[in-house]
């Protein structure tokens, strides 16, 4: 009978160890996914900044608040709104429906 208790105790210990290892693997995978997401977001921000500089090289002369004001007005112009609508329409034509949910 004592052997069965020892055996059960060992099995429980092994199961708990496997559980902890699985939890660690899940945590590592989440960390990896978050790192990928962060890198992609940072890359996107870098590219967007480059686009601003490309089309508005004087942007360095303005602080963040001033640049926010300039861009918010520029993005509300009729021409800008038209091209945004056109790009969205083109995107919907080429993107499968399950991406628009």
From TrEMBL:
Basic and acidic residues: bias regions: 22-32
Positions of region (Disordered): 22-41
Superkingdom per UniProt: Bacteria
Name of the protein in question: Uncharacterized protein
Native species: Parablautia muri
